[in-house]
Amino acid sequence: MSAPRDPRGGLFGALTAACGADWRAYVGHPFVRGLADGSLPERCFRHYLAQDYLFLLHYSRAWSLAVVKSDRLDDLRQSAALVDLLLNHEIALHVDFCGGWGLDETALAATPEAPANRLYTRYVMDRGLAGDLLDLLVALAPCGLGYAEIGRRLLADPATKREGNPYLPWIELYGGAEFQEGAAAMAAQLDRVAGRRGLTPPWDGSARWPSISDTFATAVRLEVGFWDMGLAPPA
Amino acid sequence: MSAPRDPRGGLFGALTAACGADWRAYVGHPFVRGLADGSLPERCFRHYLAQDYLFLLHYSRAWSLAVVKSDRLDDLRQSAALVDLLLNHEIALHVDFCGGWGLDETALAATPEAPANRLYTRYVMDRGLAGDLLDLLVALAPCGLGYAEIGRRLLADPATKREGNPYLPWIELYGGAEFQEGAAAMAAQLDRVAGRRGLTPPWDGSARWPSISDTFATAVRLEVGFWDMGLAPPA
Amino acid sequence: MSAPRDPRGGLFGALTAACGADWRAYVGHPFVRGLADGSLPERCFRHYLAQDYLFLLHYSRAWSLAVVKSDRLDDLRQSAALVDLLLNHEIALHVDFCGGWGLDETALAATPEAPANRLYTRYVMDRGLAGDLLDLLVALAPCGLGYAEIGRRLLADPATKREGNPYLPWIELYGGAEFQEGAAAMAAQLDRVAGRRGLTPPWDGSARWPSISDTFATAVRLEVGFWDMGLAPPA
Amino acid sequence: MSAPRDPRGGLFGALTAACGADWRAYVGHPFVRGLADGSLPERCFRHYLAQDYLFLLHYSRAWSLAVVKSDRLDDLRQSAALVDLLLNHEIALHVDFCGGWGLDETALAATPEAPANRLYTRYVMDRGLAGDLLDLLVALAPCGLGYAEIGRRLLADPATKREGNPYLPWIELYGGAEFQEGAAAMAAQLDRVAGRRGLTPPWDGSARWPSISDTFATAVRLEVGFWDMGLAPPA
């Protein structure tokens, strides 16, 4: 199988280009650099993992809202499969992974949701309630597509520490073929839905562009806030 | 004050033109002709009035969903004022009006919602949940703008029976300046929101047109079903 | 494996008992009797199958709304698995099944949604938007649990025609172990959610009972309307 | 007219009692004390005012969602009147008030929404989408009822600085009869809806209590975050 196409063409490429500084602050965040060179303090990573568990539940709800808002069989199917994958497979993997870091599921479920965590998912839900499927997918895009970009970059970067880096499994997960293919499918869905919902190239000439690019940039900044949160574990 | 502009230019005009036969079936329905010449059986009108009371409650909920889905102060304000007008003024007028036909509010509230009534408002709510503000406004348009067209036509038509027509107050309400101005404001909002949400002339060249025109035509057929229901009161 | 427990205990049992005449009109509908003795005209069944294809899409959206409205991992998982099953497996089976009756997927997707079909799913969606997870599950219950009861009864009834009955595969599907187990899981979820959402036995002493039992009875009547629709195929 | 009853009886009283420390942190926040003695830095108040303008828009959307989720005429009417009051009257007053502090509406509308501001309203919206009318009203309660308590306390407290306190108009607004009556109506609605939705005294014996009291306590902490934000204006 050939390598998945870089999803940064199409609408996703235009959106990241339009919020360049925010995007770079997200994908090149100190938290990410700490994963790459293994210098991230363990308690930061554990804090992040526990929040990410809670995040996955609401992220799954948001993708379910995408099913609610779909009217084509391909969109219904793609989002439904993702929701099932997240809730009935990924969360179990996440729990296993957390177990390796000394966090059991009871501890995960009892973790108070941090404001920066809650803010991102609830913002996404509200974009979905207020807008259409495109608004929702654009608010969701920084997460799936951003993690794919981070994973791909770190995995391709010879400077990434391999030996003795406790975060290598994280990098391999998001940089791996399965996640990359999922991200490519998400980017393709974004373009497909944009085309049907009146957002077409040249993107920034479209009436929907100001609102769509604002949603994306806002969501990117909320992802930056999520990394910031990771660096500030409770005492 | 000058007469309000016919709202059938702009998007609304394009939508009615695109579903011409359905639109004519709606605004020229036998129920409407029975109002015009006074021949509508009284029990049909009473059945219609009782269902219309229930309709107003859900129609108000749908316009509240429009507030939920608005992001501009002008849209927020316009829909909020309409919801308040409907619930805190129009319903009281409707109840008074029904009183004149021998229906009190307890009887109105106890009326079972007819399928054709329920179908229209729930379809509208779902278009709002699934789509964006434009999808919702387009699903709502046949009601407000259609009643305005019916009222305006009947009032302007010399063949409309005036003397001794018990339905003249109904015609005067929907043909009157206040309702016409409200409808003109609705049509203007439709054009304004369409422009921001990526639906621009030439309408039928827009990627959103197939879905938008389908929503409108469907809602028009559900309005036809509402008139049909009026002609078939329970025994 | 032991046979699944009859799901008519618990809340579901109370709800069916409370709307006995409507429930009997649903599960003993002439359409159902025509399936049992094989006398249902083929064009009625084909009409039903085409509408059921469209139904499945919106039914899946409604179960996705249940995911959106869930806050426990067990509920999130159960509804997400069902949505994925419906969209990524059941619809394909349904399309295969329809193929055996001469209906291909293009024809299915192009079928206009009949009013009685649209009415049920949009009513369910609105109960979900207006209410909580329990209101939504109760509106959904007549479908899954009713089909399970119909299938189980017909399969257990010696009077059901087996040989030469073209509808036997339909009966075997809904009466079969897999569907019965799914229905038992649904009934168990209903009781579990009711308990958390303030509806507890004695059911009819609960403040939520009037609204919940009205939702259920309304949905049952809309299912009756769905069967009625099946008996009235377009000319 | 007699003074409005303290709304802290009923469900609201139980909710505030159950999260006592959080509630005290909210109504006795340093920001509030700075309003009371006039010591709050002007740039903090201006920052707060600009954020509060944006807050009002989303708060109005949340109350519109309450209309969407209502099924009784009294609830529909009360929430609709509040939304209209907020959008078509209060915001204009707020803009006037801000004008006196040197902030014009263009500046207000161009203010970036602070995370703590966005977090509260989007959390409320999501409680409304996920839950029922009661979940939504409980998430909304800390705002209206908390401001009423703060205003009433400060106005009644002889230690509150009157002469030369630039924040006295703010205190008089929220401590004044009109706002107090609105708050009393909100508290009454909360009890009324709780009764219908299966949450009855003794509150903490109800199956819904853990979730309801968690929603309230969370919203109170988000209000504390809103005050914290006020004390940390951008440089």
UniProtKB/TrEMBL annotation, chains A, B, C, D:
<dbReference type="InterPro" id="IPR004305">
    <property type="entry name" value="Thiaminase-2/PQQC"/>
</dbReference>
<feature type="domain" description="Thiaminase-2/PQQC">
    <location>
        <begin position="23"/>
        <end position="230"/>
    </location>
</feature>
<dbReference type="InterPro" id="IPR016084">
    <property type="entry name" value="Haem_Oase-like_multi-hlx"/>
</dbReference>
<dbReference type="GO" id="GO:0005829">
    <property type="term" value="C:cytosol"/>
</dbReference>
<dbReference type="Pfam" id="PF03070">
    <property type="entry name" value="TENA_THI-4"/>
</dbReference>
<dbReference type="InterPro" id="IPR050967">
    <property type="entry name" value="Thiamine_Salvage_TenA"/>
</dbReference>
<protein>
    <submittedName>
        <fullName>Thiaminase (Transcriptional activator TenA)</fullName>
    </submittedName>
</protein>
